[in-house]
Amino acid sequence: MSPHITNVQTAPIVGQKPGTSGLRKKTPVFMGRHYLENFVQSIFDVVGAKGRTFILGGDGRYFNDRAAQVILRMAAANGAARVIVGQGAILSTPAASHLIRLNQTDGGIIMSASHNPGGPNEDFGVKFNMPNGGPAPEGVTEAMFQRTTTITEYKVLEAQDVDLGRIGRHDLGGMIVDVVNPVTDYAALMEALFDFPAIRAMFAGGFRMWMDSMCAVTGPYATEILENRLGAEKGTCVNAIPLPDFGGMHPDPNPTWAKALMDEMFSDAAPDFGAASDGDGDRNMVVGQGIYVSPSDSLAVLAANAHLAPGYKAGLKGVARSMPTSAAADRVADALGIGKYETPTGWKFFGNLLDAGKATICGEESFGTGSDHVREKDGLWAVLLWLNILAVRKQSVATILQEHWAKYGRNYYSRHDFEAIATDKADAMFAALRGSLAGLPGKAVDGMTVQAADDFAYADPVDGSVSIKQGVRVLFQDGSRIVYRLSGTGTEGATLRVYLERYAPGPDGLEHDAQDALAPVIRAAHALAGIAAYTGRTTPDVVT
Ligand code: VG1
Ligand code: CO
């Protein structure tokens, strides 16, 4: 009996424009009539589905399971040959990236809104990753968006749900569905990169850690790798069961949202090391006993010490960072005599550099670090590289940071987020700011003088593609810097991100709290953009 495929008549639905990493909307919007289907059909129309193999999985948030069934039925109706799905429709973003590469598939669909809360009235998201395992580049997401504006029908198979709880091979209207353990291949990759015996010995010697998966997708990965394979004591992994609403948590690993971890690490009973990861497992926050590691510093420390891990013992080809990330990693690249690259925000910009062998390690100030082992940022990878470094150097996180700053100087750094601003107000502020740029050089603000100001544009050194308007940056003569950007991942109004940086060479860098050290830069940031006048906000919602 031939399977029955329905061509459902539909019409374009406005607002299906993928942002920094895929399409994110409120869950009820995604669950609305034709919404998910239109976007998925647009993906297949752009990348082609006939005879293809894809990876499918998500971060387990509300609607993850049902969306997976819809995507499978549509893949079958569009003629895909095979889909490899994580058991329970679960896959972390880095694990999905790895499976795409390992199985040499034609790409993958990841269901996630990353750090955005999940639940019936929270956020849902869908992103497409390319055959290299990385997020679709702008040209592809733009084509998908254009397709959503002209779509008139989508294809779906009439069939029952596939039992995604059962590992093994299933048939869906002639398409193969392979349900796999979401952790196994990823854990093997980690074991190949890092010195597991050294880390195991460290745990056996009484080293204690707190790994907070924030009720999101990292839990099963962290439990298997840290507790089962590396012998960390039971209970090291907390909030380790993925829940559809993330237990009401906001799975964004930063000092504000991972407050329980911060409190623990600054308490008398603090373990040696703490870490948290985000909704889809691609980000990490790392905390030492009584010391917070800023993501920009984490990238620099990882780059400087990566050779201590077996997977990187041959050294790094280069280090890439997003433009708003501090220049701390650049100093390491200079010292190592390797290439350094500055890209726009979003992991998709690192893909070409990694594929071309120009960079080995990449990072963003937003708690994302990763390497050429996959084409996504990877939260647990960063945690394991830190553990590997701690196991070899046998020093505390605080000592490692202090030695780093003593050698390279310190880039004081902070990001201030102003959330849910009315879009028109944010746009007006940026229009005025952009209009003022030409007049800024030479201007004195709060004891500092502006040296240069521009709107960051990036020409990809590999394929030459150009991305404009990637953030307004103001550079001062003393090396301080302010960057202004609007978030591309929010789903409510606009989120203004202000990135603040100040460099202190030498030992001076060891003494201050970052917010204190940055005080003049923060005042200048408010003065230059008129944040209060345009948005009515004087203090940020989140400081990282
Ligand atoms: C944010 C971060 C950015 C990151 C992106 C996706 O984007 O700032 O660095 O790449 O999230 O990360 P935006 O446009 O809101 O600033 V994730 O963990 O959501 O896949
Ligand atoms: Co994420």
Give an overview of the whole structure.
There is one protein chain. The chain is of the alpha/beta class and 544 residues long. The chain folds into three domains: 4-181, Alpha-D-Glucose-1,6-Bisphosphate, Chain A, domain 3; 186-408, Alpha-D-Glucose-1,6-Bisphosphate, Chain A, domain 3 (3-Layer(aba) Sandwich), CATH 3.40.120; 410-543, TATA-Binding Protein (2-Layer Sandwich). It is built from 18 helices and 27 strands. The strands form six sheets. A seven-stranded mixed β-sheet has the order 2-6-5-3-4-9-8, sandwiched between helices. Helix 3 links the parallel strand 3 and strand 4. Helix 2 (35-47) crosses helix 5 (138-148) and helix 10 (295-305) runs parallel beside helix 11. The N and C termini lie far apart (58 Å). The model has no long low-confidence stretch (mean pLDDT 94). Bound molecules: alpha-D-glucose-1-phosphate-6-vanadate and cobalt (II) ion.
